[in-house]
Design a protein that fits this description.
By secondary structure, the protein is mainly beta. 7% of the residues lie in helices and 41% in strands. The protein contains 1 helix and 19 strands. Strands 1, 3, 4, 6 and 8 form a 5-stranded antiparallel sheet that branches. Strand 11 and strand 12 form a beta hairpin. The two termini are 39 Å apart. The structure holds copper (II) ion. The site of copper (II) ion (CU) has 6 residues, from loops.
């Protein structure tokens, strides 16, 4: 809505109020007076990668009620090398929430602001980036993958090592995972597999024998 439409809306609310027709909790919200960060602040992630959680704000009126239809403008406010937000404008939904995706750039700290026309103090987000690891090791032991989750950059390697005595396990990848990915192994009690990941994404692997008991894991590959 434009500011003029908001003003008109305010007048309408005023008329309803004056006529004694205020519906308490069911009363529509007034014009927005603030943006409250409601998701995605203070993430720790990796240089030149999109953050895993989208940034979100909730527009509220003077009484703290969520306001739909507010056009929110997003901007990276830290210096060059700090990545980008997309889209740079989004509109609050039925529950007053607007979102954007955010990629951190080559700076260790990134700040992002969210505002609407006339807002005195924009909402502010701080995000942090480091270099992703180039290798990770996963041990098959005690009928589990340890650690369950690992992360490497593209061109990085993950090594799985069988360390569970005489117990046999397999390493299988989900058929819908990105490619290339490691080939499935037969059941075995010893050995290791090392794979160099070249495709960004989230993969999921499992032991075909003990999957139902939770013997699963997840490597994430980032830029
Ligand atoms: Cu197993």
């Amino acid at each position: 809505m434009t500011r003029r439409q908001w003003a008109r809306w305010g007048v309408l609310v005023g008329i309803l109020w004056a006529s004694g027709c205020n519906g308490g909790g069911t009363q529509p919200p007034g014009p927005p007076t603030d943006l409250v960060p409601t998701g995605g602040d203070r993430q720790n992630w990796f240089f030149n990668n999109p953050l895993p959680t989208v940034l979100s704000v909730t527009a509220v009126d003077i009484d703290g009620r969520a306001v739909p239809g507010v056009i929110v403008t997003w901007a990276v406010t830290s210096s060059s090398g700090s990545g980008a937000v997309s889209p740079t404008q989004s509109t609050t939904n039925a529950i007053g929430v607007a979102t954007t995706t955010d990629s951190v750039g080559s700076s260790t700290t990134q700040t992002v602001s969210a505002t609407f026309s006339g807002l005195v103090s924009p909402a502010s987000f701080s995000e942090f980036a480091t270099t992703p690891p180039t290798s990770a090791a996963v041990s098959l032991e005690n009928f589990a993958f340890n650690p369950k989750n690992s992360l490497v950059q593209t061109g990085g390697t993950v090594t799985w090592t069988w360390n569970d005595g005489t117990a046999v396990h397999t390493l299988n990848f989900n058929a819908t995972d990105p490619t290339p990915r490691p080939a499935d192994t037969p059941p075995q009690a010893t050995g290791s597999v090392t794979f160099t990941f070249t495709t960004v994404g989230t993969y999921s692997f499992f032991c075909a024998i003990h999957q139902a008991q939770g013997m699963t894991g997840q490597p994430t590959v980032v830029h």
